[in-house]
Design goal:
The complex is a heterodimer of chains A (111) and B (117). Chain A contains no helices and 10 strands. With 111 residues, chain A is mostly beta strands. Helix content of chain B is 0%, strand content 50%.
């Protein structure tokens, strides 16, 4: 599989604001997954969007996918201090059975 | 979903020794992965350990340094051999779940924080 590149590297916002982070990749994908990591522990799967989907929602999360631009975005609405974490995208290409993670976006939500 | 128990949660080891990390899953899984996360860095895949076959190592990782066992569908171990301070990292076990090509979701253990003196 290929590695996604998250942008920005770091994001600092106030509680209640929205947070948007982006992911770019290089080759065609079957799906793209977003994960969250708190304090250097195990990652938690947030959402998967397939290549034939353009938008997906899960609670306060909204993920979009633009395959023509080879990019995805993760929007967290009405952020909370508990959303403070690192967020990673993982584009999954056909024929691969592993996930490769990029550097991630470090999100800090201040009360 | 899958619940993963990873042991030990942390350890401090002396240079030149070895540490074996255990990963126990509460259900049978085919795909199992070992990652390393060095301080301030992202996760790096060490190897894929599927039951019934030898582990597949990523570039830069070798079996002599990171031997892996996968005796059944619920258990795996990763050994960090002949440790040096550069091996100080968080080591993470994960399992894959999915119906199509490749894992559609990874579940992670809580990690092993390793410090080598």
């Amino acid at each position: 599989s290929q590695q996604g590149e998250e942008d920005p590297q770091a994001l600092s916002i106030q509680e209640g604001e929205n947070a948007t982070m982006n992911c770019s990749y290089k080759t065609s994908i079957n799906n793209l997954q977003w994960y969250r990591q708190n304090s250097g522990r195990g990652l938690v799967h947030l959402i998967l969007i397939r290549s034939n989907e353009r938008e997906k929602h899960s609670g306060r999360l909204r993920v979009t996918l633009d395959t023509s631009k080879k990019s995805s975005s993760l929007l967290i609405t009405a952020s909370r201090a508990a959303d403070t974490a690192s967020y990673f995208c993982a584009p999954v290409s056909g024929g691969y059975n592993k996930l490769i993670f990029g550097a991630g976006t470090r999100l800090a939500v201040h009360p | 979903s899958a619940v993963i128990s990873q042991k030990p949660s942390r350890d401090i080891c002396q240079r030149g020794t070895s540490l074996t990390i255990q990963c126990q899953v509460d259900s049978q899984v085919t795909m199992m992965f070992w990652y390393r996360q060095q301080p301030g860095q992202s996760l790096t895949l060490i190897a894929t350990a599927n039951q019934g076959s030898e582990a597949t190592y990523e570039s830069g990782f070798v079996i002599d340094k990171f031997p892996i066992s996968r005796p059944n569908l619920t258990f795996s171990t990763l050994t960090v051999s002949n440790m040096s301070p550069e091996d100080s990292s968080i080591y993470l076990c994960s399992v894959g779940a999915g119906l199509g090509e490749g894992p559609e979701k990874l579940f992670f253990g809580s990690g092993t924080q390793l410090s080598v003196l």
